[in-house]
Amino acid sequence: xxxxxxxILALIRKEILAVLKDARTRNMLLIQPVLQCxxxxxxATLDLNNVPYAVLDRDRSTxxxxxxxxxxxxxxxxxxxxxxxxxxxxxxxxxxxxxLVIQIxxxxxxxxxxxxxxxxxxxxxxxxxxTAGAALGYAGAAVDSFNADWRAxxxxxxxxxxxxxxxxYNANLETRWNLIPALVGTITLMSTLMLSALSVAREREEGxxxxxxxxxxxxxxxxxxKAIPAMMIGVVQATxxxxxxxxxxxxxxxxxxxxxxxxxxxFLLAAVGIGLFVSSIAATMQQAMLYAFVTIMPFxxxxxxxxxxxxxxxxxxxxxxxxxxxxxxxxxHRVYLEGVGLDRLTPDLWPMAIIAAVTLSAAAWMFRNxxx
Amino acid sequence: xxxxxxxPVIEGRKLAKSFRGPGKQLVQALDDVSFAVMPGTLTALxxxxxxxxTTLIRLMAGLMIADAGELTVLGFDVKGDPQAIQDRIGYMxxxxxxxxxxxxxxxxxxxxxxxxxxxxxxxxxxPMLMEMTALGPFTRRLAGKLSxxxxxxxxxxxxxxxxPDLLLLDEPTVGVDPLSRRELWDIVSRxxxxxxxPVLLSTAYLDEAARCEHVMVLHQGKLLSQGPPSAxxxxxxxxxxxxxxxxxxxxxxxxxxxxxxxDVLDASPEAGRVRIVRREGAPEDPGAxxxxxxxxxxPARFEDGFMVLLQPNAGQAGPAKDDAADMKLExxxxxxxxxxxxxxDKVVKRFGDFVAVDQISFQIRRGEIFGLxxxxxxxxTTxxxxxxxxxxxxxxxLKIAGADLKRSPASARQKIGYVAQKxxxxxxxxxxxxxxFFASAYGLYGARRRQRIDWAMAQFQLGPIxxxxxxxxxxxxxxxxxxxxxxxxxxxxxxxxEATSGADPLARRExxxxxxxxxxxxxxxxxxxxxxxxxxxxxxxxILDSGRVxxxxxxxxxxxxxxxxxxxQPTMEDAFIAVIEAARAPSPNERAA
Lengths: 372, 593
Fold this sequence. Notes:
- By secondary structure, chain A is an alpha/beta fold.
- Chain A has helices spanning 2-21, 23-43, 62-72, 87-94, 108-113, 129-153, 175-206, 208-213, 219-248, 257-281, 285-301, 314-319, 324-338, 346-370, and strands at residues 51-57, 77-82, 100-104, 120-124.
- In chain A, strands 2-1-3-4 form a 4-stranded mixed sheet, with helices on both faces.
- Chain A is elongated, with a radius of gyration of 28 Å.
- Chain B is an alpha/beta fold.
- In chain B, the strands form 5 sheets. In chain B, strands 6-7-8-3-9-10 form a 6-stranded mixed sheet, sandwiched between helices. A 6-stranded mixed sheet of chain B has the order 20-21-22-17-23-24, sandwiched between helices.
- In chain B, α18 crosses α19.
- Chain B is globular and about 65 Å long.
- The termini of chain B are far apart.
- Classes of the chains: A alpha/beta, B alpha/beta.
- At the A-B interface, α1 and α8 of A face α13 and α14 of B.
């Protein structure tokens, strides 16, 4: 038992040395999560700012000016053109100069004053459906706000229903708050899966695996010696990403670190299990790399990172059940933003435990079998 | 190209080339090298590892530019017009770039496309190449599935898709079995003889150099000699003797003893006797002071002259030699000589339908050096891997050091050491870190571990390079490190899988010196090798082909099987080829009847 532990420790030490000795690999592993977080934090945001739009105001009345003032004052829209003819709209949308064109009919103020419906046409560039939808949403909110003001100013009763939205755990609905904690899971999945998948394949390719197998190492010891260093590096990476989230982006941490790390370690175990399984079936590093890539892509797409799982087709939703990243992202969100304890995280914890158990035993079985 | 005319095809004047080594220090790869290669000749480039052979060939191929000096190839200045040279030569690097996932034919087509060989030329060229390399029946096979020898032949065929004016081959016979080696040589000599193509090749086999018309000996970047091989062998004239012991002392032990004699420059076992080269200025009578030994003068060979050339410091033994002889284990295996430590009983290994090893049986006794020989694809590697526990036999019994590998592999593995064919320690780790790791892997810790690592550092002179990365060591040191790591736990049994493949003659001598010392202390050694001269160090050898043991016995017994009317004193290589060919010949029973 003690001898076995000593051997595992030696292997862990060797793995860490081999990975961290090379300055380039070291930087890749430790700085990369920070860069990814910064990159995603700034570039991959779904929040709209400075949406370019144009106006075809045929009314040119105080009412139409007040409506446009609402848009301009929202901080979301940026008017870049005042049009005079309808045929100018197409050109601006086509060459993506504007995302949105607002057309106000000549009798806008008259209809409003008469208490009639006063339609305002909004034309959005639907080629990017996400952004167009969001822009229309913001524009709609501006129109609602105009309506409320108009009613108040003209002594009309307020609308029978008013919606007062309140987003819990992310009051301003900042994409960043959603995205950066989710990256903690995504980045560590990529690195640990890659590291563990390549580590055995590399040894196999370089002939050192044979050398390892002729020593008293047992397959289980080799597995442990490969899994633990990859997990350790995963923990450091997750920590780096968390530091960026809190110190740079100032996203407040609501939960307990112990809870978060317990969940993360279970997740890393599942990720390493998948990596080692990939490693056990790959004959070369190139194969291991390809297998790892084809695993990582669907895992990140079907994780809820960018698109909500609830809006996926039913088959895809079923597939996400075997995706450890799905649970990890949910877990990090809930601990980080919501602050829940371990007791309420069981729906995330047990699937990851099952995935880890299945992949690790499959990998161990494959290792033993490849000896035959 | 006119054959035999007086204008050299390659001419170098005062060539120099240096590199930055791993430690940023300057390494002089070539220093003041001047030479000429004549048309229509076969030229060999020999020298120890790191002598500058590959650098010189790459300079000739226009892949590098010399720091100083002039080099003309086929009349073109290499510096001025490397492309003109590359358009006219064929160059096969040490690791030829075959595409393993393409078939033999696809590889050929690819190289023909790259060299812009027309369809018409291909029609004329392909049958010739196929006939020459005997690859015709395998055109559809994937290159990755070919044996080592066939890969080399395919590499050569790819190099020859376009008829070159000059052929440069960098160690074409490394890691190739004697049969394939002979076939490769047939191809090369045919090219020179029938097509008049000048060929320059580098080699670690000194017997190959002896077959060339012109030999250049490089050592530490300097050209020590150039001329016909007889010029080199002539250096040892009158200094070579065949030594025989009256007392029946095994050749290997006599060789080790003779190497320690101050007058002896080199000694190697051969046919149960020992061949020695004496130092310059040694006393007239070689037998003086050595009772029980009979010395008879023999004609010098190229190898003898080569050793004289490389060890000019007469009267002083080389440092490597002495240290290697001091190889002492702290806890040698229990002395129960004669007990079988490895028992192989009717072992079969199948891969699907393919029977790689077919009912082989043999026993290896403690302290024996046992050689496993055979052509590529004979089942030698499979057998070896089963002995080490890397593969499990399909059926049959296999006992290593009394343990059944099927039941208690971990404890059995504690008793074995393994040195793989290619360097298989961690390239990213330093020498010290590698030793550290393998010491832990074998369960050594505390004071004992420190003691064993110190022992390995001292025995293999690894101290000065302890902090260098394993992957950046020169070939000879890699080999030493691998052996050191395999001996840390003082194994009872040492497995050496083509451990000297690609090593130069000096490194091989030193290596065998250590192995001999280990065997004397009771370590059982199992080796595979393609160097038939190394079989002379073994107590017993087994020759395998098609998964069966064809012959088994002492080197003398095996050698006797190669004797024919025309060749009464066959070399080990002759005997090896004779045994394989006899077994491969169709229905030998009929012929006997």
